[in-house]
Amino acid sequence: MKGLLLGGLAAGIFDSSYAFTRWGLRGVSPKQILHKVASGLLGPEAFKGGATTAVLGMFLHFTIAFLASTGFYFLYRLFTLVRRWPLLAGALYGGFFYFLMIDLVVPLSRTKAGAFAWIDLLGHIVLIGMPIGFLVSRYSAPKWVPSAVLK
Question: Which structural domain range is residue 91 located in?
Answer without folding.
Answer: 2-140
